[in-house]
Amino acid sequence: MAVFTLNINGQKKEVDVDPGTPMLWVLRDHLKLLGTKFGCGIAQCGACTIHLNGTAVRSCSLPVSSVGEDKVTTIEGLSEKGDHPVQKAWIEHDIPQCGYCQAGQIMSASALLLNNSNPSDKDIESAMNGNICRCGTYTRIKSAIKTAAKTQ
Ligand code: FES
Ligand code: FES
C-alpha cells in the first residue's frame, strides 16, 4: 500500500491503496465517485472513460501510480450543474436508453471538443470508436456532438 495525493475534479484527494490499483476502483471504491462505470475492465468498452489533463483515458486500465499530479476529471466534475454543452446537447437529443454507457460517452465527446471545436463526421467516429453502446444510441450521439460543437 502507498499514499497517493490526486487532483480529482479540482480537489486534492489522498488515497492509501496498492500502486497497481486502477483509477476506476480508486474513484468508485475509495472516493465514492460512482458516475464512472465498470464495463469490461480491459479497455475495450469505454464505460470507465475519464479525462487526464483533458484527454479521454480508460480508468480501468490506468494504475493510480501513473497519475501523479495530472488533472483527473470525472463525469461529476465536468460541470457544476450538469450544464456542460455536451450534457445539454445530450438532453436535447434525448440520447440515453439504459444509460449505462453514457457517462463514458459524454467524457469521450467532451474530450474530443476540448481538442477539436469543429469535428468532422470522421473525427467524431474516430474519437467515439472505443465507446460501446449496447442500446445503439450512436446516431443520436453523433448529432448531439455536432449540436454541442455549435453551442460551446
Ligand atoms: S471498463 Fe474500462 S474500457 Fe470497459
Ligand atoms: S444507453 Fe444502454 S448501453 Fe448505451
Q: What's a concise summary of this model?
A:
The protein is an alpha+beta fold and 152 residues long. It is 34% helix and 16% strand. The model has no long low-confidence stretch (mean pLDDT 98).
* Total separate domains: 2
Find the count of extended strands (DSSP E, 2+ residues). Answer: 5
Instruction: Give me the CATH architecture of the largest domain, please.
Output: Roll
How much helix, percentage-wise, in residues?
A: 25-40%
Any idea what the radius of gyration is? 15 Å
Low-confidence segments, given as residue ranges, are none
**Could you state the CATH homologous superfamily of the largest domain?**
Beta-grasp domain
Instruction: Note the beta-strand portion.
Output: 15-25%
Topology, element by element:
Blueprint: E1 2-8, E2 11-17, H1 23-30, E3 49-52, E4 55-58, E5 71-73, H2 85-92, H3 102-115, H4 121-128, H5 138-151
Helix pairs in contact: 2-5, 3-4, 3-5
One FE2/S2 (inorganic) cluster is lined by residues 96-102, 133-135, 137.
